[in-house]
Amino acid sequence: MRFKVLAILAIFVGADVARAQETPQDWDIARDSGRRMVTAAIPVTTGLGLVVRCSRGSYEALIMGLPPQEGDTRRLEIAFGEHDLHPETWNVSVDPTIAVSSLPAPFARQLRQGGRMQIRVPNATPDGRAMRHVLDLPPSASAIDETLTACDRPLEDPRDALIEDVGPGGLPAGLVWAEAPRLSYPIGSRFTRAFVVLSCLTTREGELEQCVVEAEHPMGGYFGEAALRGAGRARLQVAGAPDQPLPVRRIVYRTNFQMARR
User: Hey, what domains does the chain have and what are their CATH numbers?
Assistant: First the structure.
């Protein structure tokens, strides 16, 4: 799996050496009909690589070339345009130098606008210093749009404006699980561990609806479908007032899959 991911960037690095100092008109696009994959990528002069892709209905956004990170998640601070840096929790890929977005489609919708982007990496050096990358990205007139469309992700989504209301645990303040999602490991999956990030809207009765698989890694292991089934059995309630109707809010939460050892 690691070598497949790295190969994506290698293709584009080789193609862009001759024009590294120029401003490209769009991101590079690659299509693999056999794997039903569409990838848009751009290497940047700071040594990072940005990749968004659709593969068999699953969408993914990657930042490559980061200092290696142990564990399941890592903290990055990201800003677009003149906005202040905002802390985000990203996921560590099978390659520890690659970060996987928990909300790849909203991230891609920001990337497609182009312009100034900052990425600050805490504890990037052995002595604990941070590293900040300041990028000037070209807008994507068609490449990123093609990846979003291939995965049936909208080019504009008003729900993106609700992301800031989501708390660090995935639930808005004042809401708790009355019945947490119950998960079953996908039968036939060849992976021993994975994660899925879902976004859903709440109903006044506490159920979840309009759930979308925002991130799934590794892709192709049926984990997204398993997480959606778990969401269908979950319920939320107002903290301290279980009989009170819920406000309609957006939630974003991560589910981890780990195959039990015998």
Answer: 2-156 (2.60.40.1880), 163-258 (3.30.2420.10)
